[in-house]
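Protein modeling request. Please complete all fields; requests missing the sequence field cannot be processed.
Requester role: graduate student
Desired output: 3D structure, token encoding
Chains: 1
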Amino acid sequence: MLGEQIAKEDILKYRIVKAPEDHTVELYKKLENALRLGNGFKGKVNIIFQTQEGTKRVETTVWALTELSLQLKSGIMIPLKSLIDIEY
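Delivered output (88 residues):
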């Protein structure tokens, strides 16, 4: 399992940085599916992303998706360029 599991509420304690490789294009279909899963069924996904402190993983619901970031509950935003993978 890739990345240290953290609570959604702890995301803002970390400095989110760009991933070593930009996976935005290859992950976009997964992101759209995660958005549908979250909005339609309140389903959670695992989001693996890069922080200055290392790779982190959070299980949560995706609320919104923009060209630059995904939004979680409570207005938490994760830049798409920091994403490593999405698992559901």
